[in-house]
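Backbone shape codes
____________________
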Amino acid sequence: MRRRLLVLLLASAVPWIQVRIDASSGFRAQEEILYLWSGEQVRRLCPGFEALMADIYWIRTVQYFGGQRAFAQEKRFDLLEPLVNITTTLDPKLEIAYRYGAVFLSEARPFGAGRPEAGIALLERGAQQLPRSWILQQNLGFYTYFYLRDPHRAAAAVLKAARLPGAPVWLENMAADFLVKGGERETARRIWMRMYEQSEEGPIKANARSQLQRLDALEGADILTRQVRVFVAKTGRLPGSLAELGRAGLLPFPPNDPTGIPFEYRADTGKVEIARGSQLWRVPGPLGSGYQ
């Protein structure tokens, strides 16, 4: 409460502080330049205002990420990591910056920076700064499992979270799932569902919801691909489209993903996939969600 009141009382000082940063930089006031300042530089320019500036830079981080994700034609997240680093340097105890920043950095392109190593490193720093936060330690384990595909390291992180005050009792079972069923979609579904249920409305909950929908879409695409194989077994050829699959009575449900976007059908291979135009599509890469 005291911090929020301070932000409100000092809000009128923000323009003056920003002008001071601009003048000290010797450059024209462009957001691209301002975002590249280090936290230590901002701290020296605004002594005593570190908490306020951390809030300002965190707002900038969210605005930058949201603007790129929603409006940019060619989405670029180059400034995301510097922004988050400035925020957490100014206020190393700002838990929301670690949690949300890890989502922004780790999520695959085009809906995130596609830099899971940076997201996991951010959570590691957060866990060091806030050693009693079981949720940061839990997220470190989850993200290590999903994005680095390292079940042993992920299980160690989740077990550490399980020993912290207030941690949910199911974390130990989740760690066992990592080791026994690493890579299975059902394990991934349980984890994203837990994150969805325990998160407040915002980017973390929205991301968990999207990941659950994506799992449904992957399952639907696999079912339709199997139906294509049934068609081939009956006719000796691949169907020309999913509509032809329907006319043969082999379409068990409308060929759309959970967001209503039609699946993409590759007539040359018979494979059904999430369409590139869907918000559930992710750029393939060496690191991914672990349940392709």
